[in-house]
Amino acid sequence: MVKRMLLMLAAVLVVLGGLAFTKYRQVQTAVAANSNFQPPPEAVTSIVARETPWSSTISVIGTMEAVHGVTVSADLPGTVAKINFESGKAVQAGDILVELDTRQEHAQLASLQAQHELSNLNYDRAKNLANAGVVSRQDYDRANADQRQTEANVAEVKATIDRKIIRAPFSGILGIRKVNLGQYLAAGAPVVSLQSLDPIYADFGVPQEAALRVQVGRQVVITSEDVPGRVFHGKVTALDSLIDQTTRNIQVQATLPNPGAKLRPGMFVQVAATSGEPQSFITLPASAISYAPYGDSVFIITDMKDPKGQTYRGVRQQFVKVGSSRGDQVAVLSGVKPGEEVVTSGVFKLRNGAAVQVNNKVQPDNNPAPKPTDS
Q1: Phi and psi for 365 in degrees, rounded to 5?
Q2: What residues contact 81, with CB distance under 8 A and at least 6 apart?
């Protein structure tokens, strides 16, 4: 009985061993087959790396300022007698804006002019008599002093009348009128703002490390979302003499033409300031760069060999150093050589050695100065 049981147990062990060996061989065969498996190629787009001229620019936010901008105010107190302008209109230097009531000054002027005529007659008589030796030199000097005194009084009243005529100090665009007919104005009371808008200033700050590269005469390009489709070109005309201790920026002023007064003082604008001589860099679409904390990289397409020795088109990850950007483009300072084929879209699904299939029917944007159709 015991012998029979041992034989049956031995038979069971042999069967189980055979099954385990068969399964082991099946697993080995599957592993070997999978080790030679090549995943299907990923569809990507590509571009051949080439060097292109690249102007070093700094992109900052600026504020528009008028070349001449004042609030025209009353020099002397008085009542508004005439208003000779309309809000928002253009005026020329010297145009009369407001006339204050000068009836009292004109009356004083008439009286003083009469006194001045009398003093002129007295002076002429005293001069003739003094030459004839009839009157003393003292009487002649007194008549001369009276004549000059009345002349000065007339000039003073004329100056007062002229100061009560408020004129445009320069050519420009008027703002909103702040006075009404018959209103009494105190000395210094505002009348209207006046801004000279063509040309116009753009004030902006740049970091201190760029202060030596942004020099007088450098080109600037001004754009604004409030003036779509317009690009304004100007030049740097002044740099501040000190650097702000809080921001470590230096203030820069550019001057640019402003036809049609599209740009207004106080408006925020985007400023692209040239900060050096043009250089040549390899430029790639921004979609070609894979940004990561451990370093930025691109995928370069090259011929590779699979485990069977067959050649296929695959990718190699290459770390790069990127510079500034302009529009859709990014400047690559190092890591990519001219002539290398670089993946421009689909980088998120790639890895070293992955097979790719290039399809460039639809390419990502690669414009240094894009103009969105829907903004």
Answers
A1: -60, 140
A2: 99, 100, 101, 102, 181
Task: Decide: helix, strand or coil at residue 253.
Answer: strand
- Tens-digit pLDDT profile for residues 138-187: 776 777 788 788 888 888 888 888 888 888 888 888 888 888 888 888 88
**Under CATH, what is the fold of the domain 42-53+279-358?**
2.40.420
Element of type H or E holding 232: strand 232-243
Q: Assess whether the region 42-53+279-358 and the region 102-163 belong to the same CATH fold.
A: no
Q: State in words which class domain 58-67+195-274 has.
A: mainly beta
Task: Give the residue among 71, 73, 273 at the shortest CA–CA distance from 166.
Answer: 73
pLDDT in tens, 353-368: 888 888 888 878 777 6
Cis peptide bond upstream of 199, omega within 30: yes
Threshold 0.85, pTM exceeds = no
38 and 314 Cβ atoms separated by less than 8 Å: no
Contacts of 19 (CB under 8 A, 6+ apart): none
